[in-house]
Amino acid sequence: MEKEIIKINRIGEVLDSKGMSQRELARKMNKSYNSINEICLNKRQPRLQDFPKLSEILDVPMNELIVAEKIKK
Right CATH number for 6-68 from 3.40.190.10, 1.10.260.40, 2.60.40.1120, 3.40.50.2300? Predict the structure, then answer.
């Protein structure tokens, strides 16, 4: 049986649109590449206190980093 993925954040999409790599975001966030990769794949979610910094680094409003409702992939 295939594992169901619920999409909650748009961080991977925003990274792509900005032309920024996951490694670059990891460095700027002072996080591991694996952590950022899992966040971009919606396998885990960033901490709430990380959203202001993510918003600043990616130069988008915080509400653009989340999905309004859960989307099954």
Answer: 1.10.260.40
Residue at 36: amino acid letter? I
pLDDT in tens, 24-67: 999 999 999 999 999 999 999 999 999 999 999 999 999 999 98
Dihedral-angle region of residue 6 (phi above 0 means left; psi in -120 to 50 means alpha; beta otherwise): beta
- Report the predicted TM-score, pTM, of the whole model to 2 decimal places: 0.84
Which DSSP letter does residue 44 get? S
